[in-house]
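To: structure desk
From: M.T.
Subject: fold request, one chain
Message: Could you run this one when you get a chance? Sequence is below, nothing fancy, just the single chain.
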Amino acid sequence: MGWSKLHADLPGPRKLGPYPDRDLDCQQELEKGFLALVEKAELAGWVRLEIYAALIELIDHQATADRALESDDDNLVKAKRSQR
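Reply: Done. Structure tokens follow.
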């Protein structure tokens, strides 16, 4: 499934920037796709608890990678500023 199809099925935040319950809005919008993914994995033969454990590990690894990239980007900006 391409990005445009995924994006079309998922409403974004109610408004730009932070607002109360933005995190809950995000959870609510992601829940249907999450449950569909869990069900698809169950139909393939995986047990629900191992699906959850795998998803937690995937999320943790992705968050770690994203934090590292963000740190790298910050360091590049600082290095470019110091060269001026």
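Reply (cont.): The first helix runs from residue 3 to 8. Let me know if you need anything else for the meeting.
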